[in-house]
């Protein structure tokens, strides 16, 4: 049966390969890519070769207003029947800056906006349009371990603070440095795991949510909703990523940041 999967971060790298993989393995999938206008138009055309069904909705993921417009357009297309039933969302978009001082058009720190708030806003605006069984996959990273085993020590581990602090520039020591930018990245990926736990407990039955660490491969395994999937298997995440108080605090803050 024909169905729709909405995807961010499909333009290049692992996301591009994942989009190609989805289309190859599931020819009944209509992949709807969310990306900047010129890049998205080109990407949709390239992915559609071979008879695949691919379309594009433009958005600047660093702007919550732009993300809201894109998600609203997707809702409208689903309601009109222009798209087949929505069965999946892949939140793969992610960005890392060489500092923790980059501010987006909403006045919020750019890493947190793209890696956390943009995906959250799409999920919330589309959640009542999913046709069960459906799955939400948010790409995370084992950089949050901050050790040699998981990332050869190249990225500092997360430095959790209140969501209000994390959402603004200068949240970390020496914010103008690359180390601060990388800390913002690993912290944002920890936040993404917290939100996946919240989705698992809050979304209707039949809509699963998983946090996926792709490593150097792609695809998701059969795993209970709320799972952390490391490459192809459900696994235990870092101990820090299981904190119900932080999860609840982050949920409240992201709802506030993304409110219309």
Description of the structure:
- This protein is of the alpha/beta class.
- The chain has a single domain (3-257), classed as NAD(P)-binding Rossmann-like Domain (Rossmann fold, 3-Layer(aba) Sandwich).
- The chain has eight helices and eight strands.
- The chain has an eight-stranded mixed beta sheet with strand order 3-2-1-4-5-6-7-8, with helices on both faces.
- Strand 2 (29-35), helix 2 and strand 3 (53-58) form a beta-alpha-beta unit.
- The protein starts with a strand and ends with a helix.
- Mean pLDDT is 89; it is low at 216-220.
Fill in the keyword field for this structure.
260 residues, eight-stranded mixed beta sheet, 18% strand
Low-confidence stretches: 216-220
The CATH topology, please?
A: Rossmann fold
- The 3D shape can be described as globular
Instruction: Kindly state the number of beta strands.
Output: 8
Helix content: 40-55%
Please work out how many helical segments DSSP would assign.
8
CATH superfamily: NAD(P)-binding Rossmann-like Domain
CATH architecture: 3-Layer(aba) Sandwich
What is the level 1 CATH name?
Answer: Alpha Beta
User: What is the strand arrangement across the widest sheet?
Assistant: 3-2-1-4-5-6-7-8
Secondary-structure class: alpha/beta
């Amino acid at each position: 049966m024909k169905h729709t999967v909405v995807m961010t971060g499909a333009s290049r790298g692992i996301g591009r390969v994942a989009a190609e993989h989805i289309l190859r393995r599931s020819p009944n999938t209509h992949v709807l890519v969310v990306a900047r206008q010129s890049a998205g138009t080109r990407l949709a055309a390239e992915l559609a070769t071979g008879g695949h069904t691919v379309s594009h909705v433009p958005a600047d993921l660093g702007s919550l207003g732009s993300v809201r417009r894109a998600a609203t357009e997707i809702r409208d297309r689903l309601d009109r029947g222009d798209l087949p039933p929505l069965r999946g969302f892949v939140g793969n978009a992610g960005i890392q800056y060489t500092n923790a001082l980059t501010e987006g058009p909403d006045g919020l720190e750019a890493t947190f906006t793209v890696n956390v708030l943009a995906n959250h806003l799409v999920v919330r605006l589309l959640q009542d349009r999913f046709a069960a069984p459906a799955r939400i996959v948010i790409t995370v990273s084992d950089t949050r371990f901050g050790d040699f085993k998981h990332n050869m020590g190249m990225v500092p581990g997360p430095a959790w603070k209140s969501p209000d602090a994390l959402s603004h520039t200068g949240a970390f020591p020496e914010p103008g440095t690359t180390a601060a930018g990388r800390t913002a990245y690993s912290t944002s990926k920890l936040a993404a795991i917290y939100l996946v736990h919240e989705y698992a407990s809050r979304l209707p039955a039949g809509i699963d949510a998983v946090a996926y660490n792709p490593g150097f491969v792609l695809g998701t395994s059969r795993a209970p909703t709320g799972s952390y999937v490391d490459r192809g298997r459900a696994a235990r995440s870092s101990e820090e990523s299981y904190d119900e108080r932080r999860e609840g605090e982050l949920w409240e803050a992201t709802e506030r940041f993304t409110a219309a």
